Automatic annotation (TrEMBL):
The keyword Transcription regulation applies. This is TetR/AcrR family transcriptional regulator. Keywords: DNA-binding, Repressor, Transcription, Transcription regulation. It comes from the Bacteria. Residues 32-51 bind DNA. Residues 9-69 form the HTH tetR-type domain. GO terms for molecular function: DNA binding. It comes from Janthinobacterium lividum.
Length: 185
């Protein structure tokens, strides 16, 4: 049975949205195609009408998720204080505690390394975020903005990843607070 193009596109978007969330929460190996389809309310059967493979889904869902991250960062470019607030929100307990709703960089760096089809989407997103941070963060020395953006984003992503990985809540909070303070004061 053929479905109208609009319905097919809507299902495709639902799959991308749920896949992006589940990949960020559980990683590539932690979620199956069946679980992704179940989260969308669809059966496993139509998956291959939309994607050639799970890896292809992850690549496309990475681009899908990166668009949402770039929109949030674009909103923060309105002022230096909005950019500082973006950093505070990124390096926060709320972000740490909600990987499915958070940034794909902190959640998927390890998976992107192992999935060749995902690496171009991941690289595109990373370069885009670095470019926006370099252009809009209130750097003290503009001639080093790109290098400073790479350092800052690496620290932010690393802080969230490490804060999620440790089993000591106080230490996790300390990691976040230390990196947050380094870039927002």
């Amino acid at each position: 049975m053929r479905y109208p193009a609009e319905e097919t596109a809507e299902k495709h978007q639902r799959i991308l949205t749920q896949a992006a969330r589940l990949f960020r929460e559980k990683g590539y190996d932690g979620v199956s195609v069946g679980q992704i389809m179940q989260a969308t309310g669809l059966t496993h059967g139509p998956f291959y009408n939309h994607f050639a493979s799970k890896e292809a889904l992850m690549a496309e869902s990475t681009l899908h998720g990166s668009e949402h991250s770039r929109v949030a960062l674009d909103a923060a470019t309105i002022s230096p204080e909005a950019m500082r607030q973006y950093v505070r929100d990124y390096v926060s307990a709320a972000h740490r505690d909600a990987p499915g709703d958070g940034c794909l960089l902190a959640a998927l760096a390890g998976d992107a390394r192992k999935q060749p089809a995902v690496r171009p989407a991941f690289t595109f997103h990373l370069k885009s975020i670095i470019g926006k941070l370099a252009a809009h963060f209130p750097w003290k020395k503009k001639n080093h903005a790109r290098q400073d953006a790479i350092v800052m984003l690496s620290a932010m992503v690393g802080a969230v990843a490490l804060a999620r990985a440790v089993d000591d809540d106080a230490f996790s909070d300390e990691i976040l607070k230390t990196v947050n303070t380094a870039f927002t004061t």
